[in-house]
Design a protein that fits this description.
The protein is mainly α. 70% of the residues lie in helices and 0% in strands.
């Protein structure tokens, strides 16, 4: 296993699971069904972010750039799985801490993620043309 895999996959996975477990155990609020649903959603979201990041490999960047057109793994179904998974994670976190006012965070981030996805799409379409347009037709968001 190379260092890149450790930094991109295993370290975030372990840190994320540990941190999320601490929040689940110590956050105020009732320990009822909503908290368990939050835990499930949070873990699904965290796993999705890490899997997506790992699948991107060296193609990952914060600013939109077209290094490679990744169409395998989770990217074979969803064009922006990091954004979707991140939103799922945030909703799970809100359910765990049981602060309905924090629902504003994922709600505000949805339009931000849509704008980011459109910018990335424009960069990818400019670089990969028809290949990206075909990919976009067979995937969601």
């Amino acid at each position: 296993m190379d260092r890149g895999t450790i930094w991109r996959l295993w370290l975030p996975l372990v840190a994320g699971l540990w941190g999320f477990g601490c929040i689940f155990q110590s956050a105020p609020g009732p320990h009822g069904l909503a908290r368990w649903i939050g835990l499930l959603l949070g873990l699904i979201g965290l796993a999705g972010v890490i899997l997506s990041r790992y699948t991107l490999g060296r193609s990952f960047s914060v600013a939109p750039k077209a290094t490679a057109l990744v169409t395998s793994g989770i990217y074979s179904r969803i064009r922006n799985p990091i954004y979707i998974s991140g939103e799922i994670f945030l909703v799970g976190l809100v359910l765990i801490v049981w602060r309905r006012d924090l629902l504003i965070v994922p709600l505000v981030l949805i339009p931000v993620q849509i704008v980011r996805a459109r910018r990335e799409a424009a960069v990818l379409e400019a670089k990969f043309g028809d290949a990206y347009r075909e990919y976009r037709k067979r995937t969601w968001f």
